[in-house]
């Protein structure tokens, strides 16, 4: 994988990439089928609506309790982990996190890092950073392994290579794995990837992972996975580095159980994942396996901006299940790469402005129909539609206006012309006489409106014909021959 070219994109080019995706029928059909499948899988795991709502209430309460006590819980987590022999590092920015990990690698003379799945490391572009400095990172999650081989970023936070066909994967393996012949058989492809990665686990100097949750009361890092690569990445190399967004902490170990149930059932429609990994420190005397050195990097990278605002703080409740993406009509039509951000879909639209600023991401908040599907399926009840409206407001706010908690890039879309239009619109609908005059003018000049409504008429899914009623069927039956 050394020397693999990465194809980085920027959220500022969202409209261009979305237009290209909408004009790709193969991509749209692939994503539509995948999202329908995932929606069905999720529904099958929650047959009891009352149980689901109770579990969502519990998940929301756990996440809100953790956020309400976040500073104290992070300090408690650090104390517990330090007492267990874990080295805890605080990183305010992505650059700081990268530098911390590089220093650990250089101190150990490391040349290779084997990685379990970690969206936080994708967020800070760790692979690219270390690769430029002579340390090779190898993704061990099969989906991440495939997109790394293709020089791409994940298109989904749970299923990174969901946009790839088996034929494309077969071609990639033939080109990049020595001695591999082309095959598009799924079992053959999986076995090929496993064989290539087994050697990487044994030879890596450092193992790196993400963190699903961390319990402050016990100092326990919790990882869920299906492939066993997370367990190998965190136990085979002598050094394990975990990188965690600071919002992933919870007060008690027992709080993780309902969150894990919501996560697995909402993400992939499984009652439970294959592996649950609980990490509480390095190898102890007398133990035969496990890392001899463990590090945890606590990452801010814009999260404190969301945390400072009472409404936007709800963004940090996310448990990264991807359910909002699976049910989003926009994501289903354009896929993940169109967004140009680490986190695509509805969750990406509300978290990316804090990570990257509104200058780069203002267009994402408007790429939503506000249908509410994302909020309805969120297992921890994040009010995504209302947060999108708030971010739109901040993007169009006067950049010089004084507010309690200004967002990075406030006013990125501010326009005096737009402000005048909306002021006129508000005035017209507030006064009956003006409204009647406006309505009269609108009916006389309707020929000036566009002949078609752009994306809606060009790219919407065709409506299914309404089922015929019993009365219609009876009338047809009684028609004379």
From TrEMBL:
GO molecular function: 4 iron, 4 sulfur cluster binding; metal ion binding
Domain 4Fe-4S ferredoxin-type, residue spans: 308-338
UniProt keyword annotation of Iron present: yes
Keyword Endoplasmic reticulum: no
PROSITE patterns the UniProt entry points to: 4FE4S_FER_1, 4FE4S_FER_2
Highest rank taxon of the organism: Bacteria
GO annotation terms (biological process): lactate metabolic process
Cross-referenced Gene3D superfamilies: Alpha-helical ferredoxin, NagB/RpiA/CoA transferase-like
Entries under PANTHER family matching the protein: LACTATE UTILIZATION PROTEIN B
NCBIfam families in the record: LutB/LldF family L-lactate oxidation iron-sulfur protein
Protein name: Iron-sulfur cluster-binding protein
């Amino acid at each position: 994988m050394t020397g693999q070219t990465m194809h980085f994109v920027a959220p500022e080019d969202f409209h261009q990439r979305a237009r290209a995706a909408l004009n790709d029928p193969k991509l749209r059909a692939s994503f539509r089928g995948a999202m329908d499948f995932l929606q069905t899988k999720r529904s099958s795991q929650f047959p009891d609506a009352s149980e689901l709502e109770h579990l969502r209430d519990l998940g929301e309460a756990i996440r809100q309790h953790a956020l309400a006590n976040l500073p104290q819980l992070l300090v408690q987590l650090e104390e517990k982990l330090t007492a267990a022999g874990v080295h805890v590092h605080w990183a305010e920015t992505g650059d700081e996190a990268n530098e911390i990990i590089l220093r650990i690698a250089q101190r150990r003379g490391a040349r290779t890092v084997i990685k379990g799945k970690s969206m936080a490391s994708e967020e800070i572009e760790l692979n690219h950073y270390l690769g430029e400095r002579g340390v090779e990172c190898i993704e061990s999650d099969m989906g991440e392994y495939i997109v790394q081989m293709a020089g791409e970023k994940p298109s989904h936070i749970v299923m990174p290579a969901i946009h790839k066909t088996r034929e494309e994967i077969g071609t990639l393996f033939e080109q990049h794995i020595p001695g591999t012949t082309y095959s598009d058989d799924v079992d053959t492809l999986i076995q090929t990837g496993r064989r290539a990665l087994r050697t990487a686990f044994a030879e890596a100097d450092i193992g790196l992972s993400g963190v699903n949750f961390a319990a402050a009361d016990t100092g326990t890092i919790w990882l869920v996975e299906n492939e066993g690569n997370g367990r190998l990445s965190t136990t085979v190399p002598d050094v394990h580095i975990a990188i965690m967004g600071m919002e992933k902490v919870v007060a008690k170990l027992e709080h993780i159980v309902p969150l894990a149930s919501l996560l697995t059932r909402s993400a992939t429609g499984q009652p439970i994942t294959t592996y649950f990994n609980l990490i509480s420190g390095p190898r102890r005397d007398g133990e035969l396996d496990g890392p001899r050195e463990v590090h945890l990097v606590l990452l801010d990278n814009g999260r404190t901006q969301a945390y400072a605002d009472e409404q936007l703080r709800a963004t940090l409740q996310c448990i990264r299940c991807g359910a909002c993406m699976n049910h989003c009509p926009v994501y289903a039509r354009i896929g993940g790469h169109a967004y140009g951000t680490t986190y695509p879909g509805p969750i990406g639209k509300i978290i990316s402005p804090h990570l990257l600023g509104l200058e780069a991401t203002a267009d994402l908040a408007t790429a939503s129909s506000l249908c509410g599907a994302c909020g309805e399926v969120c297992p921890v009840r994040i009010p995504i539609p209302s947060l999108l409206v708030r971010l739109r407001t901040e993007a169009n706010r006067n950049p010089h206006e004084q507010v309690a908690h200004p967002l990075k890039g406030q006013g990125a879309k501010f326009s005096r012309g737009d402000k005048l239009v909306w002021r006129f619109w508000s005035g017209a609908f507030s006064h009956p006489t003006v409204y009647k005059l406006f309505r009269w003018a609108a009916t006389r000049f309707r020929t000036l409106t566009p002949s078609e409504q752009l994306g809606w008429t060009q790219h919407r899914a065709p409506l299914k014909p309404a089922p015929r009623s019993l009365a219609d069927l009876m009338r047809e039956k009684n028609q004379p021959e």
